[in-house]
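Inputs:
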Amino acid sequence: MAALDSDSDEDLVSYGTGLEPLEEGERPKKPIPLQDQTVRDEKGRYKRFHGAFSGGFSAGYFNTVGSKEGWTPSSFVSSRQNRADRSVLGPEDFMDEEDLSEFGIAPKAIVTTDDFASKTKDRIREKARQLAAATAPIPGATLLDDLITPTKLSVGFELLRKMGWKEGQGIGPRVKRRPRRQKPDPGVKIYGCALPPGGSEGSEVEEDDDYLPENVTFAPKDVTPVDFTPKDNVHGLAYKGLDPHQALFGTSGEHFNLFSGGPEGANNLLGDIGVNKGRKLGISGQAFGVGALEEEDDDIYATETLSKYDTVLKDEEPGDGLYGWTAPRQYKSQKETEKDLRYVGRILDGFSLASKPLSSKKIYPPPELPRDYRPVHYFRPVVAATSENSHLLQVLSESAGKPVHDHGTHSRHQLNASKRGELLGETPTQGATTSVLEFLSQKDKERLKEMKQATELKAAQLKARSLAQSASSSRPQPSPPDVGHRSWHMVLSAGTAATRASDFKPFAKDPEKQKRYEAFLVNMKRGQRDALERCLDPSMTEWERGRERDEFARAAVLYASSHSTLSSRFTHAKEEDDSEQVEVPRDQENDVNDKQSAVKMKMFGKLTRDTFEWHPDKLLCKRFNVPDPYPDSTLVGLPRVKRDKYSVFNFLTIPETASSPAAQASSEKVPQRQGSDKSRKPSRWDTSKQEKKEDSISEFLSLARSKVGPPKQESGPSVNEEEEHVTESLPDKVVNKGVDSQTEGEGSRPSMDLFKAIFASSSDEKSSSSEDEQGDSEDDQEGTREADFQNSRETDLVETSPVAQATEPAPQEPAPFFPIQKMQVDAEEFGPRLPPVFCPNARQKPEVPQKEKHKKNKEKHKTKKEHRRKKEKKKKHRKHKHKSKQKSRKSEKSSSSESTDSSDSESEGEGTADLSPQELLRRLKHLPLRRQ
Amino acid sequence: MEILGAVTPARCSPVDGNYCLTCGSDKTLKLWNPLRGMLLRTYSGHGYEVLDAAGSFDNSSLCSGGGDKAVVLWDVASGQVVRKFRGHAGKVNTVQFNEEATVILSGSIDSSIRCWDCRSRRPEPVQTLDEARDGISSVKVSDHEVLAGSVDGRVRRYDLRMGQLFSDYVGSPITCTCFSRDGQCTLVSSLDSTLRLLDKDTGELLGEYTGHKNWEYKLDCCLSERDTHVVSCSEDGKVFFWDLVEGALALALPVGPGVVQSLAYHPTEPCLLTAMGGSVQCWREEAYEAEGGTG
């Protein structure tokens, strides 16, 4: 900047391109925003970035060639004139300018190349170079390289150096070096391809080893990895030319071994070069003779004679390296361990070579055969086992070295029925082939068996039992288990399934018993017929033994035959029966009563709301594009806790809340309210809120009471409250009977349906019939039924779902009872019914339940049906309009219908005016009769 | 539009309202053009009557559930069953897609809501919401909520974003629930012939609408296209309109002699579909009479 401003100042040096001078009145240029910055090549072409993996920036002409016409053609030059100028094309001739630029692949500017990178003392490369130099026509040509040392080193080197490492040293803790007694015998070869440590640069070190002061540690020797030189000639394996130094300068006047191992020789060669470097640069790579450039040729023949070479391939002396790894044992020297050590390399810290060799596996020779053994199998003559030749058989088997009784077990195919019977311990049959037992009657057989069993048992018991118990054992045996004994014994011993029965543990709860059972099974499999007696506990009483015998027999048969088929049909229980706890939701919706009252008061909000922690499934959150609210939890759904399994409160929420203090309080309130109602009973139009909230149970009770007739004195306190209403109106009862029934038939029939649904059939019929006959003198039976009704009603209330409770507050309105009724009639249907199939042609309203309801009246009132239904509908509509009013009025009416009958009929005037009371009464009477 | 057998629901396609979907006891699903009354396609494959159906946001797929306890995913264009999800123990009362049609939510009388994944081939539901104590009658889905009405008298709202379940007790068996279009309120109809508008966040009662009859059937209710009116079916053959704010009965539209079983409101226009018996009717404003009217 300064340089641009002042031309006079010549001394200043300017770097870079200066900004253009600002002109007057011009606003300073805004920097180009990032998105507008482009990359262009030197010709101003826009360079597109292709992405790192597809070639970086675009190049050439649309990524193809140098120009639109193609490769730039070199102008033609006649070769006649400048033939000599024809130059060899190098790679640069095919490169773009970009490649030759500073950041191209072949930059022209001066940069440090790889050659100078880190070649300083890299032993491997150095060695390779030396090797190349040694084999090169002019040895030592690479010496120049050593003079020029680059400065660039890798970070690892730098770090190591800072830690005190010097080039040429190995890495690791410093070691104490023991002076070598002697130089390694050149005759001792190192076998294998791995180099011993320090072997490579051994020559220099070995010479220094003469004097080693005590208490001086050395850095470990650098480890040079094996360098594998590819074989690129046609010489034999491991062939190498004569060492020119040895050959020419006679350092070792020993026998030359053409076939000696390669690596060692190579190392020596290299090492020697280092030593002899300064003295002579000789010809190398020659096997015979001396090169033309060799000056000293006088002593060649003194040291090098052909007699030193082998002319014949023959066995080497022991210790020669011909055998390698496979050398026979005696060829290996006594310093085997040392050699091993050399092969292994440095032993790791904390480890040492084993002093004892691994113990070899002991091999036992096969047993010696007896001298007179003949390897020929001799088949014995087969003799049929009959009674005549039994002696022969015995002799034969004895000759085979086996006892006679064994014979039966391993040649069971030769057994006949009698033999088998004998084996099983049956009484042998004499003479004829048919068994004597067949001639015996069933009773006799049983007696025989019984006797036998008894004697056997006695014998066993006498042996085992103590004196006191043996006294009791002398009683006669109970026969029934013994009868079955033989049969299942046969079944089991015949069936193969008995083996499988052992997998089963039918008496797992009692380990002792299970043990006995297993022993029993084992004995059974062996075919011992007294298996049971053997395994039974001798200290048990007779009765126990008998029972256990039965049990075992049954278990054996059962589990053997059916266990596989049965087990395939069952799965393991989800929860163990033994565990006392079960998982239930932690939070439960409760307090239905409170909520109900809240709903009645229309106090929605906190009172009616339950909030729970709820865990959506992770996948669901994903699908809804919503972050998981509980990313750490694996829970799904509501959190669950373990509770006592058999606690009633886990499952019964409604009874629980019914017994809650709130509910109790509300139930206590009921009588009070009714008491207050009583005091101001006359006004039926009163629509106080208290009445609206009247308890549904009492409502039902009053309703039922008004139907049944005069009350009895046996009911609970709430009923007593009701009675006062009724007793007051008792005188009117008879008079207003007709009207009463009329209102029932018209207004409260659905509730009858309800009762019908609740009380099935029996009590309903009776009550309705008695109601019709209106026996003013109600009998006691009526009263008990009343009590029954109340009880069942209460239990019903508890058991029915909230549906029922919710619809109860308006018991006289016909429609809400349909769901309840239906739920009880056909339990399959839950919830609100679906609309029925509608036939558009029919004019009637296709409401099925109503049809059912009115079916009873169908024949007589077909003509009136339409009319009446229309009216009902109208009435319903009216009710909806004045619902709140109506509800309270109705409830009151139900409780005190008798006393206010006259006004009632007036109020109902709209609906019932057309129907005469007689008509309704007749219909009502007809109803139960048809049902009966 | 005469349809054999009873038509249970009539549904407008959720986004553009150009299509109408009916299903019924003839075990089929039918796709209509409601303006012309033209039957576009019939989808058959259910084993029992079809109780509910819904369309995806892009009109590319349908889902339906019915008496055969199965939830079926249909391809609209080909009319083929794409997938059948089985797992419900009872009739499937209601089905609904989520906003992106990646999940089908189905409510059944077995008191569970099952979330079926349409993307994967998993045969079992992603999640089962079985908190209800009685059958599920209605399920609605917003972008992050599931609103379910149950016969046990509770409206449950599962908020996926908050990870919470809000359960509002109404008392009477719920027949239908729906969100308001602004997403602030829920409309709940129950078997006590009352519709209630509840505040979604607090559960407070904002409005109560009575006058119609709903004592026994599962009837539909909805809000008009701009949340101005509350619309409900009734068992006396009318459709009732209330003013949302005042709660006053605005209109009782006589539809026919039977029970109006189902209705659907056009998402953007004042257009109403009602289903009664075996027919579906399309109602529009009088000014629109030229094309619409009773179909």
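The beta strands of chain A are 175-176, 217-218, 581-585, 609-613, 640-644. Flag for discussion at group meeting.
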